[in-house]
Structures are given as C-alpha cells and as structure tokens.
Prior knowledge:
Layout: H1 2-20, H2 25-30, H3 69-76, H4 83-91, H5 110-121
Helix pairs in contact: 4-5
Amino acid sequence: MRAxxxxxxxxxxxxxxxxxxxxxxxxxxxxxxxxxxxxxxxKTGMAxxxxxxxxxxxxxxxxxxxxxxxxxxxxxxxxxxDDEKLKAYLADPDTIVPGGWMSPPAGFSVADRVAVADxxxxx
Length: 123
Ligand code: HEC
C-alpha cells in the first residue's frame, strides 16, 4: 500500500513538473551566457556583443562592440547567422570563426545547445 502511494506521488510529481517549468529551456541555458551577453542592444560595455535579432544578422556586426580580428574578417565576408552556423559555433567557436575570443561554452549537452540556439534565433 505504501509503495503504491509512493508510486502515485512520484507520478504526480513527474506530471506536474512541466507545468512548473515556465521558462523555455533555451532561456534557462541563456542565463549562463548573460555574464557576457545581453539581449538588449542598448546594453553596451559587456564582455561580449549583444545577441538581439541574431537570425540573419551578419557575424560580428553588433554596434558598439570591439570584435576580434577573426570576427571582423567574418563580417567583411558578409557571413550571417543561421541555425546551422549558430549550433556549430556553440559546439566549437573555432569551426565558424577560427581564432575568435569566445571559449567553447563548457558543460552543455547537445540538447542544451540546440535549446539556446533556437531561443536566440527567435529573439
Ligand atoms: C566569458 C564571456 C562569454 C560567455 C560566458 C559567452 N560568450 Fe559568446 N562571446 C563572447 C565574446 C567576447 C564574443 C566576441 C568574440 C570575438 O570578438 O572574437 C562572443 C561572441 C558570441 C557570438 C557572436 C555574436 C556576433 O555578434 O556575431 C554568439 C552568437 C555568442 N557569443 C553566443 C554565446 C552563447 C549562446 C553563450 C552561452 C551558451 C555565450 N556566447 C557565452 C564572450 C562570451
């Protein structure tokens, strides 16, 4: 009987969990990027460029950010962010912008990277 109750309780907890998680997974992952990045173009002076409107944005083109030579070269080539490039960049920045200043974000699963990329491309 007790085991049955515990199982029922476990089921209830599992079932209510998605209702309690109100933030999308990508927004939660993005919190770890916010020490360096903002989604507000007006917020300057951070370690990294703002990431607003990333979908279709030319690499290295945030106003007021002093990019590495690697990003400036990518901008000169007119490369722009899309789903594939962003996911590859987050897995290993050097594959997209060799020699740029951002370290590969550590400790994320593939699912985390997909979630944060989808989140940013929708902002
Ligand atoms: C320790 C600071 C730091 C953290 C944490 C960080 N970044 Fe960055 N990021 C940078 C810097 C610095 C650059 C610019 C690199 C350059 O100029 O070479 C950058 C560049 C970028 C760019 C290119 C933007 C553009 O204007 O083209 C993207 C996209 C990006 N970061 C995404 C992320 C995401 C997503 C996370 C979290 C998973 C993250 N970053 C975490 C410092 C950081």
